[in-house]
Protein: Ankyrin
Amino acid sequence: MEWSSLPIDMHWAVLETIHQEQMNSWKAMRSWPNSNRCADRTAKTMEGAHRRGQEVPCETVLLWLVHGCRDRRVDYNTRFLFQLAVKHRSITLAQKLLDHPFFDPSLVNPVTALLSHPDIYRLLLRDNRWSLQKSSARKIFFIAAQRRYEDVICDLAQRQMIHISWVQLCLSDLVKGLEMFKSIRSVSGYVMEDSHFRIATQDGVPSVVQFLLDEEGCDPAMEGNLPICSNDPNIVDMLLDYEVDPSVRDNYPLVNAVARGAISLVERLLRDDRVDPNAGAHVCADICIAKMLLDREDFHRRRELLESCVRRGGGRDMMELFLGDGKMHWKAEDWGRIVWKVAVHEDEEALAVLARETSMAYVIAHHIRSGGRMMRL
Structure:
């Protein structure tokens, strides 16, 4: 039988036999058997099997490294060998490859190594022959930020490969990563700009906002009081402690708090003399009108009213109001239209109400068809 036609696991057995013969020859003080030809065939067979999508055991590669190419160059299939280590998440194989004197670690993709297993990437960091390129540093930073590999982030900072714009993009995922530094200056290299504070407020990261206010001295009323218009009630409440004017942009903080049902924040804003209490009235207009019309016995256009309200972004309160009306007789096609309109506005709270009160199948089916994101029900 041809060598290439043998199963890969049989190659492992053959190499094991050769290894045993070598040990017996060494014990008997005889010459070592020539296994180079067998090793060459094993290498070609492994590479061909890998290209065809067949499984190649790591044990075979390890034996081949130890007994087949001990004194030979292996750079011609470096990528293939390390691909096996990454695919199988084999730290042992990766270590053995890096220990080989003729192995070229510069051909290894560090991003792929980090995605496979952080310890494989850490092996590369400890190898003096390997150097991190700036072209890969950005992707590595994003992965480390998402997966909380703090030592990897620290290494990038020490190598001065972290740019301030990367911190901006990953700010919402770097709460824990940023807090491990005594100062953000150790990451960015210079004082944090106001744009980072704006991004933190927009992304809704209260801990980072508090950190920037206290440690970096960011202006809470920067750029025309834009941070106070955050969609996160906790951040707005925090900024009010710094004497930020809550009446900016036609009392937008109050309007936004009413729309999001942040009762405690609404109560605090209404206690401020600078806030116009009528500013949030138009947010509740749809609910007030719908409630008055639904109370009338002669009103028969409930479905059209609901579609109109939902199209304007009615929200959870509107859905609960209509679902509680005993005079509405729902049909399957009615539910389909309503669910689709709610999904278009990506109002996940309203979708959750529909799922709880109606057929889950309609909600899920129409939400998927609309291209919306599946919410947690």
